[in-house]
Fold this sequence. Notes:
alpha/beta; two-stranded antiparallel ribbon; single chain
Amino acid sequence: xxxxxxxxxxxxxxxxxxxxxxxxxxxxxxxxxxxxxxxxxxxxxxxxxxxxxxxxxxxxxxxxxxxxxxxxxxxxxxxxxxxxxxxxxxxxxxxxxxxxxxxxxxxxxxxxxxxxxxxxxxxxxxxxxxxxxxxxxxxxxxxxxxxxxxxxxxxxxxxxxxxxxxxxxxxxxxxxxxxxxxxx
Length: 184
């Protein structure tokens, strides 16, 4: 559903992606969908805790998806739980204009100090699917993601916030390059 909503917004064909970077991958279902149904050749990187990465590894292996832990390997799902390794992987890897950043509720559920450490993702990745709730604990996510939307606009991206119809007080932040969006 999230991917359909993003495609409706961006008019981008997900089959054309080279890379997906996901922050907080749950048990790995989004990675499985991409690798099994959308594009088997893309590079998929998930940053998550060590414990959740092990759960993802188990689930993806059982689903016959090629997966590695704490190292990047092309055309695999690379599970990374070390922030320095994650950032260096993203910075050293050829991230191009066919890279999608996904954060389904994960970014909105970490402290603001940790979010600052992840600013390199927002700064570098034009295509974004971020879902969030209005408030998490005492954090005003609406205020935070409005700032992210403004950063995206300054980076010449078309960026919008849409209310979810299926969940009250939950939203999407979608972004894509303005030049690409205007060409559709």
